[in-house]
Amino acid sequence: MEAFLASIITDILLMNVTCGTNEQFYRCGACDSVCGVQISCASVCQPFGGCGCIQDHVRDSAGTCIPKTECPPVNRNDTCSEFEIFSKGGKCERTCERPSKRCYRVGVKEACRCLPGYVRDKAEKCVPISSCFKAIFK
């Protein structure tokens, strides 16, 4: 009975969920790949689900769902580090010190950039933004 009630409450809470362009709602949540990076996902269902890319779409370096065919080609001469993707972008990137820095596509050039949800730390490595706050509050 408890599981049934939890299911009904979840359905009611999620009735007004709106996903972005090329996204749909997945009851167990989504695990989207990113252009040039294959992500392995856990098979555990998230309690409240979430929006994810529709079929044959992946996230670009800005976090937008685009067709796989529109991913920029990976320049094999530039090897990106962990949590990076080779893409076009402006000269600035978000950092632990400035996580909300606004970056615009001015002076667009191809380079290794942090994946969505990651920022550069003091060692110039891409780290999850949450790890920046953990370091601040130690």
TrEMBL record:
Q: List the molecular function annotations (GO) for this entry.
A: serine-type endopeptidase inhibitor activity
Q: Per its UniProt record, what Gene3D superfamilies does this chain match?
A: Laminin
The secretion signal range is: 1-20
Q: Which InterPro entries match?
A: Ser_inhib-like_sf (IPR036084), SerProtInhib-TIL_Domain (IPR051368), TIL_dom (IPR002919)
Q: What keyword terms does UniProt attach to this protein?
A: Disulfide bond, Protease inhibitor, Serine protease inhibitor, Signal
Fetch the Pfam families from UniProt: TIL
Q: Can you give the residue ranges of the TIL domain?
A: 80-132
Q: What's the protein here called?
A: TIL domain-containing protein
What species is this protein from? Steinernema hermaphroditum
